[in-house]
Specification:
Two copies of one chain form a homodimer. Chain A has about 260 residues and is an alpha+beta fold. In chain A, the strands form two sheets. In chain A, strands 1, 2, 3, 4, 5, 10 and 11 form a seven-stranded antiparallel sheet that branches. A four-stranded antiparallel sheet of chain A has the order 6-7-9-8. In chain A, β3 and β4 form a beta hairpin. The interface between A and B is medium-sized, with 20 and 20 residues.
Chain lengths: ~260, ~260
């Protein structure tokens, strides 16, 4: 449209900060990475950081703020993670207590914020190479499954790996592996290709999270480690308090997806 | 020689544990990764873990043990990091107090052990592709330089990045970049290629650590982030106590160099 142009990441964050965007962030600031947020009180921070270090595929840290800090330093220069996400979930002892539009009034000087990479970044790279992304084609959420693969535990934090699934035609699998291998900071290469039963998935039509998608004749299900894993693990550990983004309502960074690639 | 065969990593660690190997570990258990060790009291552990997360090229963590743990879980199953390294340095408030053959009597339940990847792994991969490693040819330590590149600080920990330098013929540089790119857990791709002055190095013949090596006509100095960086940063922070391996006296793992590659 004449005269319109997509908002920059900074403009998008200001829109969100002012409370003028209360929807999921998919499709905003295209080309820029979006991030998952987990905020925990300091007493849990070392164990959670260690959990991420031990499980980099499901938990790819892209920024960790020091205790009490709410301004990002690496992913964006002017951002406030207390206000710059459209919706936040509040969990107490593992239970969802509510969803809010900002967390300034909940902020404590001992909070540690963890930002994790999100598969939006590698999906953009797959699409650029004409690799189909079924859930986008069908306008659904990606299907996600709890596997029989245990994460490496750390302190309080333990649990199974959650994976996302994308059906890929056989002649595109090599390329899908090659492309996502370059995005270690957004879950990286697939953790499993083919037989779902091998990783404890009984029925692809019944995902544990997200929506089922159609699998065309000959397509192979390809599984990537999923950012729901750290959230599931944190909920299971039942910390006194945990704040996260609400699903799909991500933190928009100033970092290009391409800048997260590890060539 | 008839009847001799190289020791496995486990056999090598037992030799070291019994006090029967008091020399550097280069060349032992070829093909297996060796690791740097940093042990800090728990009060420093979150900040140091954060420092490594923020500076993955100089500080590639390959295992972090929980407070008080001295047995590795990922890099080796039967190892005791209090005894399985030939020599340890003891630093108090940043000053070297002594060098010992084991640290069992110094061990405290609040110690956190960090193991970091070592460039031995990528050097083996470079050699396999006939890329010359000058300091090995000249039987020297790799030359290392303090740069004008600041690490991303975290809590107490801050300081300049230290790099190692290897002169590479121009027609081999692409390959050297490609190969080391696959070893993110052992410093990864070069951080600088060419003009030393650009990164604050005045004289290649006067390294800050290690030995000068000859640079042949037409060769380009190629610089990689170096594992001396975290040690320099920790010393500068002057923690009450810090235990490390003595230079060149590394921890030998059961992990193949190839298993550290991020293909």
């Amino acid at each position: 449209m004449k005269g319109t142009h997509p908002l920059t990441p900074k403009e998008t964050r200001i829109l969100i900060r002012k409370g003028n965007w209360d929807k999921p962030t998919a499709g905003l600031a295209m080309g820029y990475a979006q991030a998952n947020l987990v905020i925990l009180p300091q007493k849990y921070a070392f164990d959670f950081l260690l959990f991420c270090q031990r499980n980099p595929k499901p938990c790819p840290l892209i920024e960790v703020l020091e205790p009490g800090q709410y301004r990002t330093k690496f992913l964006a220069m002017d951002a406030d993670i207390r206000t710059d996400i459209p919706r936040y979930n509040i969990y107490r002892r593992g239970k969802l207590e509510g969803t809010v539009k900002e967390i300034k009034n909940l902020w404590e000087s001992e909070f540690v914020s963890f930002l994790l990479g999100c598969s939006f970044s590698f999906e953009e790279a797959l699409l650029r190479s004409r690799i189909p992304i079924r859930h986008l084609e069908e306008n659904k959420n990606v299907p996600m499954y709890i596997t029989n693969i245990s994460c490496n535990p750390a302190g309080l934090f333990q649990g199974p790996m959650v994976v996302s699934m994308r059906p890929i035609p056989p002649d595109k699998i090599t390329q899908a592996v090659q492309i996502t291998s370059h995005y270690a900071l957004v879950h990286g290469a697939p953790i499993h290709i083919g037989d779902p039963a091998k990783i404890g998935i009984r029925n692809l039509r019944k995902p544990d999270f997200g929506d089922p998608v159609s699998i065309k004749k000959g397509e192979i299900p390809v599984f990537w480690a999923c950012g729901v894993t750290p959230q599931a693990v944190v909920m299971k550990a039942k910390p006194d308090l945990c704040l996260t983004h609400a699903p799909g309502h991500m933190f928009i960074t100033d970092v290009l997806n391409e800048e997260l690639a590890n060539f």
